[in-house]
Structure formats: C-alpha cells, structure tokens
C-alpha cells in the first residue's frame, strides 16, 4: 500500500465517522437545541454524584494498549529521524496488513510505513528494547528477516558527440564501440536500477525507460534530486545514435531502465534507505521483464534483510550486479574488506579501472571481486539534463549490468549463470595471471562476449580443484590450469560444470583416490575426490552426457608428480597414473566441436 492509498483510506474513514454523527444528531434537532438553549438547565456533576465508570482501570490511566492491526493506526514514519528506533521487517508472503500478525501494541509502535506488501518500516518507542523486540519478531514464521533501519552509501561509433570525440573512452576500452549496432531484439530487456531515481526527462533517456517506483514519495513518477541514479543509468542505456550527448553500453539493443528511487533527498545526497532498498529488490524480482538488477551502493554492516531480498532476486533468475566499493586506498580502514551487497553469493561484484587499464586506486578489492570495468572519469548523464564526468565503482557496476543485458538481448535463452560465465571467460586478464582480488576475471570485453554467443566456443567447462593447504581454488574456464605446479601440493577434490548456454550437454567424471581407488562417476558440479582427509587424487576420467554429447569432444590433461604435464586424454579415457602412489597437481579441460583438432599430443595421457 503506497502513501497515496493510505491518505485516501484515512479520508474515507473520517467521512464515515462524520456521516454517523449526522445520523445520530440530525441537523434539525441540533438547531432546535440551540434555539431553545435558554430553556435548558445544566446540572453540575460533582464527584459525589458520579457513578463508578465501566472500566475503572481506564479512568486511572491503566488502559490496555491497543494491538496494531494496520500501520494506519499510527503516524507515518520519518526516515530521517530516530533511525536507531526504526526496524525493517521483511515478510515471507505478500499482504495488505502483515503487521497485524506481529502482536505489536500502540505502546510499542510510535510510527510506521508499509513500504510494500512485503516490507514494513516501524519506529518503536524509546521505552522499547529494540534488540529484544527484533529477536522476538525474527521467530515469527511469517518474518523472513528483521533489521535495524540504516543508510547505505552509493559508491558514486554512434553519432553522439561525446562518443565521436573520444570523451566517452569507456566504450572503446571494453569493445562496446564494435557492438552498438550488432544486437537487435524485439521484447525489451529491462534493467532495474536501484538508486536515487532518474531524470526521465533527460533527452538521452527518451524512450529508454519503463515504469519504476519512487519509494521516497510513494509515487510511480520517479524523480532524481541527488543525481547519482541518473549518472548510473546513463552508463547503461543513454539513447544511442540520437546526435545528443553520450550513449549507454546498450547501443541500439532494446534495453530499458526501470528506476527505483530508494533515497537521495537533495542534490549530492549519497544515502539510500535499507527498507526502501529491500522493497525495491523484491519488487524488481517479481517482474518477469526485469532481467538484470544494478546496485551501485554498498555497506560494511550485516544486513539480514538485504541478504534475504538479494537471495530472492537470485532465486527468481535475475542477474544481480553491484559495485565492489570505493574503500580500496591503502590508508582506508575498510581496505580489502567485504562490501555488501557486492560480496553476497551469486552477486557479480565489479571493480573499477582507469584509462591505463589499471585498478583505480579507490576500487575495493577482495576475493569476491568478479569483473572489472571503466569507473574513473567516465562520461555520463547528469540530472540537470546535461553531462558530467563521474568516478567510482558506482559506474563500473552499471557498465557490467548493461553488458549482461546486451547478452540477454542477443540470446533470450541465456540464464544468469551463463551470462556471468561468458563475461568472465571473454574478459581481458589483468594483474596476475588468472582471476585475482584486484580485477576478478579481468576487464569485460563486450565485443568478444557477443561474438562468442553464436560460436561453438560458448560450449565449454567451468571447474575448480581442492588443493592441499590451500582449499578450494577459484573457478577456471576452458583450458585454464587449476591446481599448482612445482609446489609439491596434491589435488584432493574436483568439481566440473558445463557452460552449455541452453544446450542439452552435461558432464560426468570420476577420480582415482589414494587408498580408495576409482570412486564412481559424479556429475554437473558435484565433488569428486575428498577434502579434509589428506588423500591425493591420482587419476581422472571425464565424459560428456546429454543429447548434444555426440557433437563435442572433451579433452583433459593432468600435471602428475614426477612426470609433469601428461598428454591429452579424451571422452572418458584415463588421465594420470595408477599404482604408483603419485599425486595429481593440476588439470586443464577443454571442449571442442566433434572432429576438431586435439589441443595437443594424445599419445601418453595415462601411466600404469
């Protein structure tokens, strides 16, 4: 229920009360009483003449407080005052008045707002123990999460003139200048931008927006007083080839922005409200046309309500993208820490690079960073209707979100996992070889990602290994090496998945384990081997499954103790050693079209 609906219901209730009064006291009777008032006598009632009231405790100020049935019983909450007394409640199910199931009273609740049909914002009295109440509410079966309310900070060649003159350098750097007219889709792919709103009247957004919601005003007409949301949205879908300003990464693809305003009370305001953020994520997750959600904000606290909302969006199949944070300077107390929502599982965490393809000094880094994109001195749209340069992972995140939308526009069958895999497998590796904490899998290359969709190279593998003294390594792709070499560390377990992009193609594999032998086949991401038992892998067999298996060959080779890299095995053959007590130390896996040349020699893949 939005704020406008609440006001209408309140007015209706007062009109009903007035009507009852008129029925009980007709106008004529009242007039007659007034005319004949001089004939009336008034008896002064003294305490001696007063009878005992029906509810003696009520007269003495001990009336039992009313139970909250609806938040209309209390004033509307002011999100900028008494925030330490405000709590966010996320419900499991939709409902007009979920609050009535919380058994709260008017003594406890000072004010409130039904932000959406699954999120309430409640301010409790100063006499109420907030932590104890939250713990109690968390036990309610209809409550998914309850949090203190808080503020989260934002993390700040078509013919468009700024693109032509090179000011918008971000497009060339990620190959978007080669894809702007390569994707044409009928049904729009919608990106939900959860931020400070959007200047929908900006000339570079005309025709590129769909309905969103302004949780600050409770209206469908979204505004942007702060400016951050407009700048973020411009990176995604500023109109291309209109002869005005700049362009978004979407190019001519049919990609729209659904703006959700969750904060930004004045120009430059960088704070978003947790209750509004959660409600916006849940709303976006419900919309089938929304495929991607961008969140250019982050905090370092624990937000169970935010985690629940993000998980629902992931479960709904949305691609969820967030900025890694701006606390990457060596002097910052938060350097290297996890920022949320970027560091939640299944959220694509994006860091920023500059024109030199090096990490922007402010870009937060940790082992949760997935990808990098331009985020320093990026030209984008301004709330004034003009253009501005902006810096921060706030702007690298929407570039990746826009790239995800382009891929889904190019192939409507892609799911969130496939989109992430394509971007990672085609990224330009920066920093140390392989994925690292500073750049993730590297700088996105949209041209290569788009090209790969119609290429057989989109069929490939994703795999990771459990290494002695190291644990599970990060996921590797299509021929990359997983494990170690020259460190005398054994492989103990392995997980393999297919990047099949909708093709009926799976994978199964079995390992030969010290003291155990061949374990039996596992499939599609299951663990084969052991971990925590100090047992080495000695050999492996991998084969493809599914209707499309006849169209491809799988090749794999291992780095074996005392032998180094053995030759390539294929399609279920054994790779490694048996009966020699030699550990596997690394593995590479590739899938190629049936009949294509092997990656290398196949003479000696297995040694008995």
From TrEMBL:
<keyword id="KW-0378">Hydrolase</keyword>
<protein>
    <submittedName>
        <fullName>S8 family serine peptidase</fullName>
    </submittedName>
</protein>
<dbReference type="InterPro" id="IPR015500">
    <property type="entry name" value="Peptidase_S8_subtilisin-rel"/>
</dbReference>
<feature type="domain" description="Peptidase S8/S53">
    <location>
        <begin position="187"/>
        <end position="442"/>
    </location>
</feature>
<keyword id="KW-0720">Serine protease</keyword>
<dbReference type="InterPro" id="IPR023827">
    <property type="entry name" value="Peptidase_S8_Asp-AS"/>
</dbReference>
<keyword id="KW-0645">Protease</keyword>
<dbReference type="InterPro" id="IPR000209">
    <property type="entry name" value="Peptidase_S8/S53_dom"/>
</dbReference>
<feature type="region of interest" description="Disordered">
    <location>
        <begin position="35"/>
        <end position="65"/>
    </location>
</feature>
<dbReference type="InterPro" id="IPR023828">
    <property type="entry name" value="Peptidase_S8_Ser-AS"/>
</dbReference>
<feature type="active site" description="Charge relay system">
    <location>
        <position position="394"/>
    </location>
</feature>
<feature type="signal peptide">
    <location>
        <begin position="1"/>
        <end position="31"/>
    </location>
</feature>
<dbReference type="InterPro" id="IPR006637">
    <property type="entry name" value="ChW"/>
</dbReference>
<dbReference type="InterPro" id="IPR022398">
    <property type="entry name" value="Peptidase_S8_His-AS"/>
</dbReference>
<keyword id="KW-0732">Signal</keyword>
<feature type="active site" description="Charge relay system">
    <location>
        <position position="195"/>
    </location>
</feature>
<dbReference type="InterPro" id="IPR050131">
    <property type="entry name" value="Peptidase_S8_subtilisin-like"/>
</dbReference>
<dbReference type="InterPro" id="IPR036852">
    <property type="entry name" value="Peptidase_S8/S53_dom_sf"/>
</dbReference>
<feature type="active site" description="Charge relay system">
    <location>
        <position position="228"/>
    </location>
</feature>
<dbReference type="Pfam" id="PF00082">
    <property type="entry name" value="Peptidase_S8"/>
</dbReference>
<comment type="similarity">
    <text>Belongs to the peptidase S8 family.</text>
</comment>
<dbReference type="Pfam" id="PF07538">
    <property type="entry name" value="ChW"/>
</dbReference>
